[in-house]
Fold this protein.
Amino acid sequence: MKKFFGKIKKWIVNHLPTKRRLIQIYAALLYNANLKGFASGQIYKGASKNACVPGLNCYSCPGAVGSCPLGALQNALSESGTRAPTYVLGIIVLFGLMLGRTVCGFLCPVGLGQELLYKIKTPKLKKSRATRVLSYFKYVLLIALVIVVPLVYFAPGFCEYICPAGTFEGGIGLLSNKANEGLLSILGPLFTWKFILLVLIVVGSIFVFRIFCRFLCPLGALYGFFCKIALLGVKLDKNKCTDCGLCIGVCKMDTKKVGDHECIQCGECISVCPSKAISWKGSKLFVRGNDEDAPAQSELKPITAMLKPAPSQETMADGEQPIVTAQQSEEVHDEQK
């Protein structure tokens, strides 16, 4: 009986969510905290919708309490005319400078969904030169659908033709409510195309790690420009690095080195580095400092020893030698001179 419960306990311990997974879940819940929207089938339009959340989360989701930065950027560009959409650009730049692609690794509900689908036990497609080449396609979508189409055709190109978050959260989220049954009659070929694309992405996520993030997400491409200068993320100490390649080997993204534009800053490479060359940057500002930042016990002992007064000859036990610090020894030597 003890063995049985011991196995259950071991299974529970091995399957407990990591800190990163908990942060991902909390972020998804906070982005969609308007629970009344799911019951009523109505889109929340309160004051918080004037601000953008860091990750990809559709504005039209019934539970969404903030705007999607990618959708807000496209709408701002399509309506900007001769004026630059400084407000939205400022928010995205702020997120980029502070977090970079840490948003992708910790704060994106779409990334969370893909990672959970990837856990289904099936044969997996490993990264290769082909996947690295395909990873640049999201930059093409960024230029073509997020920038050019809104400026030239005054339409949010990516949201309208590609975005799976909009199809799942906005489309299916609203259509699944009985209050919106009338919307079913106005669905056309565009929704059919987006629904087929959503199914392909969902199925692909089972076999390919973060297939949407790696090949199709313009928001990840935007944040990738800030990876080297973002305050939070992973960093590599080149003086400690032995070029063993374990970090790139364990990474499922199409990275060439730690912290490059394809790195989602998940931190999984930190634990596999044998020389401890990888650590968190910005840890003093955002997270608890690394253990290596704290002084070692061997460094503290001489300091504490110097602060304690040396015992006198009268109070010492028989046969015990007096404790003399290095500083006291130098002072005695100087007096003898």
Notes: The chain has 17 helices and two strands.
